[in-house]
Every structure is written in C-alpha cells, then in structure tokens.
Amino acid sequence: MPRIITLSVDRWAPTNCAPDVVECAAESLEQGNILFFPHLGFQLGAAEQAFLSPETAGKSKNVSWDGVAGRLRGSNVDPALQPLLQGMMQRFAAAGESLLRALFPAYPGALVTSRTSFRAVEVAGRSTSWRKDDTRLHVDSFPSTPVQGKRILRLFSNVNPNGQARSWRFGGSFEAVAERFLPTLTAPPRGSARLLQWCSVTRGYRTAYDHYMLQLHDRMKADGAYQSSPDVTGYDFPPQSTWLVFTDQVPHAVVRGQYLLEQTFYVPVDAMRDPERAPLRTLERLLARPLT
Fold this sequence. Notes:
Elements: E1 4-6, H1 19-30, E2 34-37, E3 63-66, E4 71-73, H2 82-103, E5 112-119, E6 151-158, E7 166-170, H3 174-181, H4 192-198, H5 208-222, H6 224-227, E8 233-237, E9 242-246, E10 252-256, E11 260-267, H7 279-287
Helix pairs in contact: 3-7
C-alpha cells in the first residue's frame, strides 16, 4: 500500500537540501509512495484570482499548456486574459522544475517537462465516460501520447481558496495490480503501432509497453470488484499543499476537489536509482519478454 511521506520543504527552489532529505525523497518516490509537502503552496497573483472559476475551463475538463508547442488549450477566458493564464501555468511549470532539480539531482539531466494543467472544475458529480472517470482507481497511461517505457511523474498543488481539500484514494502495489489483470490483457496486433502512428492517432510509436498499460488502465476502471476492494486508503490534501507521485505506478483516484495545478514530467527508466522498480521492468518480468 502506498504511504504518504511528509517532507518539510517550504520553498519551490530550496537550496542545499540536506542529504537525508534527498535520500528519503528519491527512495520513497521510487518505492511507490507519495511525497507530501504540507507547507509548500503555490500563490496566485491578485489578477490570477479571477481564474478561480469553473468558467475558466468552460466545457473542458481542464486547461492545458503545452510548453513545447507553445499552445494553450481548453481555455474559456477572454482572449485578452489568455496571456495572464498562460503565464500562471508557465510559472507553475518553472516552480516544479526548480523543486525537482533540488530534490532529485540524478533526474534533471534526463527529465522531460511535459504539459501543465489547471483543473478548475469540481471533480465530484462531473458527468463523463467510465474510461475518462478519474474517480475510479487507475494507473496513468496516455492513449495519444506513448511514453515508450518512460516514467510518468506528476506534481499537484491545491490552490482552492475556499478551504476545500483534494480527496484522493490509493490502491495496492503496481505488481499486485499487474498480476491481477495481466491474464485478461492481449498482445498488440501485428503492425498496429505503425498504423496508429501513420494515421496520426498517436504522437509517436506505441510500444508494447504502452499497449499493455492502456489496457491495464481500462481494465482497472471497468472492474467494479477492484474499485470496491478493501485494499484502498484515502487522503485529503489541503489547500496550499503540494504532492508528487509516479502516477504510472501508484493506483489512484481523485474523489472530490476543485482548483488544482498539475505538472507532468517524464523520467527515463535508466535515470532511476533502481530501474527494476519501474512498471516497465515489472511487466517485462511478468511477461518474460522486452516491451520497448
């Protein structure tokens, strides 16, 4: 079962992190735990407070900023305000990068910064399909963006101004989940990865690893018995707190909450202290074959 590991870091760019803090952070994260920073909040500027409304996203699930493409998506704000919204999200991305550089000195050279999102809509009661329902336990896998074995590391910060916590649920270990569902998963059809890439369904080549992880994501969400398993715990992350987790490894679900900033990073398996803990290595061991 994942554990909440509390760290006393209270600055986004901490200097001279004690060796025991760096050791604890890396070891705990790769073991499949959640790093919790109760004193690390992300402050919005006075003008940015206007974005604390569900209307910021309109009909979208969230607003996203793609720093590589320089593209803001899902925004429902006045075009004149979009640069301010974009700036807020870029500022959060930069803060997250600073935090990871300080806590994980072995990662930065290999770390890939991906999309930033602002989630302005209340999770509880949101109408969506079961596959997109994040209130169901799952591990992360992206249908259109193959990670090709890289780790998915996500940083979350609750910016709710009304005292509302972000309520999560956590399941058991990744290996236990993989062993439970692996007999129901099928191998990718021959040539399917090339076809998906050629038709622009995916942004890049979908490896066998991506194929199995997508199926695992779906099987977990669709299985009612698993969703009601007693091997589940919960935690409420209060406003002005931040947490970090490998979401491809930790079964998780968000039950309720509104107003959250999230930053996604990719970490190559070889950059880890212990690559054998990666989901890629776990699935390769269970299937007895390479998946990338």
